[in-house]
Design brief:
The structure holds 3 protein chains of 3 kinds.
Chain A: H1 2-11, H2 19-44, E1 45-47, E2 54-56, H3 59-65, H4 68-102, H5 106-133, H6 143-154, H7 156-170, H8 172-181, H9 186-214, H10 218-224, H11 231-239, H12 243-273
Antiparallel strand pairs in A: 1-2
Chain B: H1 2-68, H2 79-86, H3 88-121, H4 124-137, H5 142-153, H6 158-166, H7 169-172, H8 179-202, H9 207-215, H10 220-249, H11 252-258, H12 265-273, H13 281-311
Helix pairs in contact in B: 1-13, 2-13, 3-8, 3-10, 4-8, 5-11, 8-10, 9-10, 10-13, 12-13
Chain C: E1 4-13, E2 16-26, E3 31-35, H1 42-50, E4 57-62, E5 65-66, E6 77-80, H2 92-102, H3 107-120, H4 136-148, E7 154-158, H5 166-183, E8 187-191, H6 194-200, E9 203-208, E10 211-216, H7 218-223, H8 228-233, E11 238-241, H9 242-249, E12 257-261, E13 267-269, E14 278-291, E15 294-301, E16 306-312, E17 324-330, E18 335-338, H10 341-344
Parallel strand pairs in C: 3-8, 3-9, 6-7, 7-8
Antiparallel strand pairs in C: 1-2, 1-4, 4-5, 9-10, 11-12, 12-18, 13-17, 14-15, 14-17, 15-16
Helix pairs in contact in C: 2-3, 2-4, 3-4
The chains are: A mainly alpha, B mainly alpha, C alpha+beta.
């Protein structure tokens, strides 16, 4: 066994990437990067009508950062991200308590309803909510109410999976029983023993959910539209008007999402190592 | 000796009564709070249930209901579906949606199969760098992606102008604002997703299979087509169905490029509930149910393959 | 000229020399075991013979043909791997037929040969089963059938039984031995388990750090280890340092040597025995553990050294902890062997 492992290990530093692989991966990687790189260059130059762009400028960014509508849309997007993800986390943690400590059979139901949004995605979700609540004349027909409801459902699958995997990993039921044996109530055990152990698992999936809300256009556009412009709707509204400004918005959006993704990958990497 | 036993007897007799009482009340106590705790437990489930019912299940039910109440007659029935399947615009929307989803999924899976294969054969450094690019670019979709492609291949896009200057008809005459244009965009966002889904499957391919095949005198072609691809098939088909439904439901990318001026299911559905014209929940509902059915079929197929992959054979 | 010849074979991975000038021959029809601890190079040598690894220096001759630079697929060998290597998308039958299909054998012949091979490994009835539904032992039987059905000129077994539990392992060992005799197939078996090597082989090649430490029949290797390493790896020799042995028996042993005595050659008794040609020492029983049909005593000698003594398990003639006993060490079983520099280092 280990003679082989040793051989593989010894061979590993010498493992060369085949040329064909390098070329193919290079082409695919470049193909994936080009649209963003083009936008980045476009946002930094005055003109691009020849092979090379001309007239380096930060004007687009200066204009964007002094635009109050931009900051408002960023603010709204952040509110949507934080509030809806927080609501979902609280709802799921409460519901998962019931599954873990009271009735395990509810787990299958939970899994089923939590995975539905994954399959249906934004379009169906948004128009269903619009069709149900528009014109009912209650507080439920308030666009903000609908929007938060929709986002709560949109991020459900991601946060659910994160929490469930974390609970499985620590064997929550066993922990609760152990705490009960020591005279601790079930709910208290859940809050004081189980929750602290799954925080990192929830963190990763929440960040993932944040980036999904941040990148959402469908729900925001269909439900709130211009009444409550998030960053994506703001971009769409500006696209026809000013391509310079829009390219700067695209760069900003991408960098934010990329940063969140990098943090997620980093966290996943460290948790795998452990 | 006798004294001690007497003492112990007295002691135990003394202790017996309170002990019994304690156990009795303890049992009672543990039973009672358990009951209340269970009750409280279900209370904790309520908020979740409320939100799920209010924002997931009822809206879905509402759409189904919309689709079943005839637009003209107001009667319960399949009238709206008949209309959807006989109106050229809606027929075209369904056909276009299925076509663009299928083609983009198939092209996406072929490219990403090769990419995953090459990434799997690469050194860890190359593979990590490539995975990083995939992870980053899988977020580049929707409106930002549409905008980037406009800059690149739109009417006055960088590549379009270069194509005109260098006389490359394919670039110069490329029209982004058509079905073909959308297809290019859809393929773009399928590739990183598909590759990320396929990569783990490749790590299930064992080195010893390859060595056994070599020793049994198999050619590389035999190895790939008789061993690797059949073993990856569940993952390939599962990924294909994810890609298909991903493209089927995509809205932002298409909307940003063609607004509502193209026959595509998500665009048509949305325009019935939102926008300048009167809301037409009946037709919209019927179209939505068609989309839901297509997606459900996809999910069922995907579940079937993932189950088969995990149960029948231990690999992947 | 032997059927298989390794001539000065060297294999390096980077700076790491895994095989250090290996030379030996294997006679046609023999079952040869490459035995040694993990990382000693035995598997690498097997893989060099199979063609899955190339040699850095040296030559490999198979049946009169220099195969050093022949690709694996052209060497006509059969191989069973340590890891389960059946193709999961194929049934047992399809797996076994795979090699024949690659050779473009006609279907009728394939069917017959596959059925024979499956019967030979006693897997009849499992033809249509997929590998995932087989136990580890059954998978390795199928892999064995797959590698013998093509009638290779040599069969290579790379620790095929190491992941299988002890009972099944015994059964498979004897099945492999039987198949080897039925087919007369030259077979090379790699293992780190000395019992397995003893049971199965005609010849044992004992490996140590990329070199061959000792070669010979199981009995030769067992009864006359040539070095401290061989003595400690094969059986459970008691090893007494030269000074300890001198102190106990008065016999001088040249420096740089140890004295090795197998536990079952030592006599143990309550009364002072009257034996010739044996060194007598006294000691105290500190422990006794039954091992199958043998009872192993741990005896502390004067000066604090302990030795193991194996006696057949009989209800009479037993010693308890603390008993004073006499041990007789037969002179001819006290082997004086050189201290091995490599194994003198503390074991990792």
């Amino acid at each position: 066994m280990s003679s082989k492992t040793k051989a593989v290990k010894a061979a590993a530093p010498g493992k060369k990437t085949p040329l064909a692989a390098k070329i193919f991966l290079g082409i695919v990687g470049l193909y994936l990067l080009i649209p963003f790189l083009t936008t980045l260059i476009y946002s930094l130059f005055v003109e691009w009508t020849d092979v090379l762009p001309s007239g380096f400028t930060l004007r687009n960014y200066a204009e964007l950062f002094t635009n109050s509508t931009f900051w408002f849309s960023i603010g709204r997007t952040l509110v949507l991200c934080l509030v809806s993800v927080a609501i979902t986390i609280v709802l799921l943690l409460l519901a998962m308590y019931v599954v873990v400590a009271v009735n395990r059979r509810l787990g299958r139901f939970m899994q089923f309803v939590c995975m539905i949004p994954y399959a249906l995605q934004g379009v169906i979700l948004s128009i269903g909510i619009i069709s149900l609540y528009t014109g009912t004349g209650t507080i439920l027909s308030n666009r903000m109410f609908m929007l938060f409801g929709a986002y709560t459902i949109l991020v459900l699958p991601y946060i659910y999976q994160g929490i469930r995997n974390a609970l499985n990993a620590i064997d929550a039921n066993m922990l609760i029983q152990a705490a009960e044996m020591l005279g601790c109530g079930r709910f208290r055990a859940y809050v004081q023993v189980v929750l602290p152990n799954i925080v990192s698992g929830i963190l990763v999936s929440s960040l993932l959910a944040e980036s999904i809300v941040f990148g959402d256009f469908v729900l925001a556009n269909n439900i709130a539209g211009t009444n409550y412009q998030n960053i994506q709707v703001f971009l769409q509204a500006n696209m026809a008007r000013s391509s310079g400004l829009s390219s700067a918005i695209v760069v900003i959006i991408f960098l934010v999402v990329a940063a969140v993704t990098a943090v997620v990958l980093k966290l996943q990497h460290t948790s795998q190592k452990q | 000796m006798a004294e001690i036993s007497q003492t112990s007897a007295t002691l135990s007799a003394d202790a017996a009564v309170p002990a019994a009482r304690v156990t009795g009340s303890a049992a009672e106590a543990s039973r009672r709070p358990q009951k209340t705790r269970r009750w409280v437990g279900y209370v904790a489930f309520l908020p979740f249930l409320l939100v799920i019912v209010g924002y997931e299940l009822l809206p879905l039910a509402q759409l189904v209901l919309d689709s079943l109440i005839g637009k003209e007659s107001g009667a319960f029935g399949l009238e709206n579906f008949v209309k959807v399947f006989t109106t050229p615009l809606y027929q075209q929307s369904i056909i276009n949606s299925v076509w663009i989803s299928l083609v983009s999924a198939v092209v996406g899976i072929v490219v990403s199969f090769l990419a995953a294969r090459f990434a799997y054969e690469s050194s860890e450094r190359v593979r990590n760098a490539f995975t990083m690019v995939l992870n980053m670019m899988s977020n580049f979709s929707g409106v930002p992606l549409a905008f980037a492609f406009m800059i690149l291949m739109g009417n006055s896009g960088v590549l379009t102008i270069l194509g005109q200057q260098w006389n490359i008809p394919f670039l110069a005459d490329f029209d982004l604002y058509t079905g073909e244009g959308l297809l290019v965009l859809y393929i773009y966002f399928q590739i990183p997703l598909a590759t990320l889904l396929l990569l783990p499957a490749f790590s299930g391919i064992k080195k010893s299979w390859r060595e056994a095949a070599i020793i049994l005198q198999a050619t590389p072609l035999d190895y790939w087509f008789r061993i690797v691809i059949p073993n990856l098939m569940p993952s390939i088909l599962g990924t294909l169905s994810v890609l298909f439904s991903n493209a089927l439901a995509a809205y932002a990318t298409a909307f940003a490029i063609v607004m509502n001026n193209y026959a595509l299911l998500p665009l048509q559905i949305t325009s019935k509930f939102k926008g300048d014209v009167q809301i037409d929940a009946a037709t919209g509902g019927a179209l939505a149910v068609v989309l839901i059915i297509l997606m459900v079929v996809c999910t069922v197929i995907n579940n079937y393959f993932t189950k088969r992959a995990s149960k029948g054979r231990e690999i992947i | 000229m032997a059927y298989i010849e390794f001539k000065d074979v060297v294999k390096r991975f980077g700076d790491n020399t895994v095989l250090d000038h290996i030379s030996f021959g294997i006679q046609q029809g023999d079952l040869v075991t490459l035995l040694g601890p993990s990382g000693c190079g035995k598997s690498t040598l097997l893989r060099c013979l199979s063609g899955l690894e190339t040699v850095t220096e040296g030559k490999i001759v198979l049946d009169g043909r220099d195969v050093t630079n022949v690709p694996a697929s052209k060497r006509n060998i059969g191989m069973v791997f340590q890891q389960y290597s059946l193709f999961p998308n194929m049934t047992v039958e399809q797996n076994v037929a795979f090699g024949l299909k690659m050779k473009k054998v006609d279907p009728a012949t394939i069917e017959k040969k596959v059925a024979d091979a499956i019967a030979m490994v006693e897997l009849s009835g499992k033809e249509k089963a997929y590998p995932a539904n087989l136990s580890g032992g059954q998978q390795q039987r199928a892999a064995l059938a797959r590698s013998i059905v093509t009638e290779p000129s040599v069969l290579l077994l790379d620790e095929p039984l190491s992941a299988i539990d002890a009972k099944l392992r015994k059964a498979l060992q004897s099945r492999i031995r039987e198949i080897h005799q039925e087919l007369g197939l030259t077979t090379i078996f790699v293992t780190h388990d000395q019992d397995e090597a003893m049971v199965m082989s005609d010849v044992i090649q004992l490996f140590h750090s990329g070199r061959i430490e000792q070669a010979g029949s199981p009995v030769e290797v067992y009864t006359s280890p040539v070095s401290e390493f061989a003595a400690s790896f094969i059986g459970s020799y008691n090893q007494l340092s030269a000074s300890d042995f001198t102190a106990l028996t008065g016999v001088t042993v040249p420096a740089g040597n140890v004295v090795a005595i197998r536990p079952e050659t030592i006599g143990i008794s309550r009364e002072r025995p009257d034996e010739k040609d044996a060194h007598l020492v006294d000691g105290t029983v500190v422990d006794s553990t039954p091992r199958g049909n043998v009872l192993r005593y741990t005896v502390r000698l004067e000066g604090g050294t302990t030795v193991f003594v194996d006696v057949l398990f009989r209800s009479f003639h037993m010693f308890d902890r603390g008993n004073k006993v006499y041990l007789s060490l037969p002179e001819r079983d006290c082997l004086v062997i050189p201290v091995d520099a490599a194994s003198a280092r503390p074991a990792a």
